[in-house]
Amino acid sequence: MFSTASLLVASLLLCASVGHGTLTDLADRSLLSSSQCCEAISLLLPGKVSNPASATYLGEQNGTGAYWSLQEASLSPTCRVTPSSTLDVSVAVGVLSVGRCQFAVRSGGHMSFAGAANIQGGITIDLSALDSVTPNAAGTQIAIGPGARWGNVYDQITPQSLMVVGGRVTSVGVGGLITGGGISFWSPKRGFACDNVAEYEVVLGNGAITTASATQNQDLWVALRGASGNLGIVTKFTLESFKAGDLWGGSIYHLATNDTLQACFNALYWYGVNQANGMDNGSVVINSYGYVADEGGFLIANIIDNTDNVAYPPLLSNFSSITPQLENTLRSTNMSSLAAELDAGTPYGKRSLFGTATVGNSAALFAAIYAQHKETFADVFAISSAKFSMTFQPFSKAMLAASAAAGGNVLGLSPSQGNLVAVGFTIQWDDIADDAVITAASEAFPKQVQALAATYGLQNDYLYLNYAVEGSDPITAYGASNVAKLQAASKKYDPSQIFQKLVPGGFKLPK
What we know:
Layout: H1 4-16, H2 24-29, H3 34-44, E1 49-50, H4 55-62, H5 70-73, E2 79-81, H6 86-99, E3 103-106, E4 123-126, E5 133-135, E6 141-144, H7 150-157, E7 162-163, H8 174-179, H9 187-190, E8 197-203, E9 209-213, H10 218-223, E10 233-240, E11 242-243, E12 247-255, H11 258-276, E13 283-292, E14 297-306, H12 317-320, E15 327-328, E16 331-333, H13 335-343, E17 351-360, H14 363-376, H15 378-381, E18 387-395, H16 397-404, E19 420-429, H17 435-455, E20 459-460, H18 480-493, H19 498-501
Parallel strand pairs: 2-4, 3-4
Antiparallel strand pairs: 1-2, 5-6, 6-10, 7-11, 8-9, 8-10, 12-14, 12-15, 12-16, 13-14, 13-18, 17-19, 17-20, 18-19
């Protein structure tokens, strides 16, 4: 039986024509429990609400490819809503707005900390069924649902010789990556993934459906380029697409010795300098340092790729020439293969954590950061199940110029800041008893990196949101003018502040 409260909400929503009217007044007067909101949504969307005992709920919580981190999977919402259309999302958000029920939104579920895409005791809207990949007739744009995974996207568009600026890991979801910025193998040529969104279809906090582009709701279009989940639920990304064939790339592995380390730090510095001077914007690098306790030590992995399918391009020769090599997977292949290779290094079913900081370009600084990470994470390396990697990912002036030329975003980066490098780290482990040690080191390290950078005059406040550690504030790091744009868009398009008040997870707008 449905409760009287749930039937009342359903009637109110039907009368308001959810998705076309506004529910602000109702939202201020109504208050339902999570279970009542679940019942109301179930009445309006039969078969699309799952409860904890159901196979659908359990699959979305703990199934293959559900949540990447155990912290997220450990949360238990009162129910999960699995919409199959934008209208379904509109109905669900409308009920939650009226009922004042807290909720979370899941695209691919690849963020590490608990609450980013799941919720304890509230309602989780799971977008996994919104996974369509639809090129237009001309092949110049591709409409992609937020629940699609990048591996699925590439599998569908590669046979058509089409490509988009998207993620580098098979299992990462489309929605979270793009709304947080999105680093891509094509970034030196075309900027961040968010810079390549021609149009967003969005469900706002009152349940209304709108679109945002360079010609319609332009302020919302710009604000969504880095807003994460703060302004609404994007139900369709229309991305600019382009013709592309195979790429050249893969990984080269080395033992971390004094010689190989210094060669990497120098190669990383000259990559930024040479690309900024116009040398080859088709080449990209992820310079990674790993520690695997049960394999006994430190390794280097240089992930290098050329999107023009040029083998051993000169810009990457400082990396490809480092010897000795433990393994070399470089080859000409497609994007699906490269994304699957990177995906294999970050398995599901572990406790997981990301962190990041941003610095200027200096080989000496890279060496200092490497030394600092060995000190800060010494106790983490002693945990037998821990797998740790630290990466240097260049944001060259070429990449930032390509981003700036794409119509604007709110990330707060520009080529005038010079060659930047995102310092990131990922930790995976098994035992919850180790959380305190790992969390303490992970919160300390980004601050230590920024302090080191300041001693070289190379500090930068930017934090790449998709890698930011829980408790940090990547949106404030966008800068005051961009925060003001986001706050103005929030006030205009979400006047009841549904995505600030009812969605507790993720990184929120500064107040």
